[in-house]
Amino acid sequence: FWVIPAVEVKIEVVIPEKERSKEEMSPNGKASPLIYKVNGTARHYHLEEHPIASNPYHNPKDVVEASVCHVKDLENGQMREVDLGCGKALLIKESGEFHAVGHKCPHYGAPLVKGVLSKGRVRCPWHGACFNIGTGDIEDFPGLDSLPRFQVKIEKEKVYIRASKQALQSQRRTKMMAKCISLSNYNLSSTNVLIIGAGAAGLVCAETLRQEGFSDRIVMCTMDRHLPYDRPKLSKSMDSHPEQIALRPKEFFCTYDIEVLTEMQVAAVDVKSKIAVFKDGFKMEYNKLLIATGNMPKTLSCKGKEMENVFNIRTPEDANRVVKLATSKNVVIVGASFLGMEVAAYLTERAHSVSVVELEHVPFKKFFGERVGRAVMKMFENNRVKFYMQTEVSELREQEGKLKEVVLKSGKVLRADVCVVGVGAVPATGFLKQSGINIDSKGFIVVNKMMQTNISGVFAAGDAVTFPLALRNNKKVNVPHWQMAHMHGRIAALNMLAHGTEISTVPYLWTAMFGKSIRYAGHGEGFDDVVIQGDLDELKFVAFYTKSDEVVAVASINYDPIVSKVAEVLAAGRTIRKRDVDIVIFLSFRTGDMSWLTGKGS
């Protein structure tokens, strides 16, 4: 179906379409008025600042004001969760100034007081999202919303916070966005910005455009039947329904004039004519294009792979169906990938048996290293998961048309009522082969630091791209993770508007299994050593991944907020040497002060 916003007649803001140089920017950094053509009609637009109301609280009954502490109760660099009676706020003191924002991360509700404060922003301890303490704005991901910001005043050495009750209760704020000019001016087969893919990268791109004042037409298209949803939950919370994991409600897309075409597959892109051709023959012209198609799961190549009850988890319907069929049955997971292991963990309490088949001798060896992999494997074995390592599936056998057995190359035969395949994925870029867009030998779209392809006006983001990672000396890498897809989408949108913004974020990911969360920051590909502090057997540890004496990544279980702290150090451009690991641990947990590590250099 199409989600087509209602017609808007009045418009505040539109960003010019044509690329503009720095000389065309006004002194305050905003765009100077320019002529822009839509469907051949010249229009004159300019950016305007959103006015800041002198009194942001329109309803006095919705306002609460409370004294929360003495000015000397907090030292510089400290945070405190304070109660205003009808809700809590996070009070922060930095460089002698007090700030107050929402106390919970809008992503999954993590307590930000347990996060990391550094140079004007607070980083979530769970998943690494970052928020500006002065504005509450989200600066790094995951998540879509910012924090509410509250007024702080000092009177007679006491700190007072004045806040909206509604904001205290919601603990989230959606940034102000522009809307589209009258959609009646447009041909259905023509759009200014076309976004292929409706995952995190595509949605953040569309939202960022609106936040930056772009008020021309935006169309997103997806092969999925649903509006954008929280895809990581497909393997972490498998019985969730689409509406429960939706990133935004349908009304949001209507309100901000973001059109979504579901169950629409692009078959080809003509970059010279700027036309996307859909599988059903429909054609759409575009001015700017974002390709954010993500990955497609690999399938098995053995006999019986097409039979009923063999699944790749791609949609909420797939995940729901697996849970239903697996209840009190025998499940075989092929592949000890993140998806495979999360599915195995989720099904353990529901299925009669869960078995994992994997080619390596320990799970996650290439990602977490052998010692951490073995600790994770032991946790699974303690929860009744059976592993069949260093082997592959040779055949899937059926009985009356349904899966009955999984035959391994080792000769072992496993009873199986359901089989879930998690053996990796390939970029969904086959439709671009004849487009002229630069694709590498593995099928990934090659982009620069501004998420631009080799074709002017064509950008790419998310799991389907390789991009220069600043953390690894601008090595071209593929980082197929949720947080990075968000940031890709934002960077692409900013550069569609000619901001000249380069990506510099530190990769951050997480996985959750049996109530244990593994957090990870950095990019450890090619690590040559792992320095572990803590107890692997007790699943309370931090692992530093090094390459040539330099820490390139960190992972932890039950060691918060060490991963977020290291992420802040790496984000500051600081190099952590192997010899510094003990100092990092000491400073993180004994003093909480890592300021010496947040400057530039080593």
Automatic annotation (TrEMBL):
Biological processes per GO annotation: execution phase of apoptosis
Compartment(s): Mitochondrion
Function of the protein: Induces apoptosis through a caspase dependent pathway. Reduces mitochondrial membrane potential.
Any one Gene Ontology molecular-function term assigned to this protein's record: oxidoreductase activity, acting on NAD(P)H
All copies of domain Rieske, residue ranges: 66-161
UniProt main location, coarse: mitochondrion
The protein's name in its UniProt record: Apoptosis-inducing factor 3
One cellular component term from this protein's GO annotations in UniProt: mitochondrion
Pfam family, any one: Rieske
Keyword Secreted: no
Database matches in PROSITE patterns: RIESKE
Family of this protein: Belongs to the FAD-dependent oxidoreductase family.
Keyword terms: 2Fe-2S, Apoptosis, Electron transport, FAD, Flavoprotein, Iron, Iron-sulfur, Metal-binding, Mitochondrion, Oxidoreductase, Transport
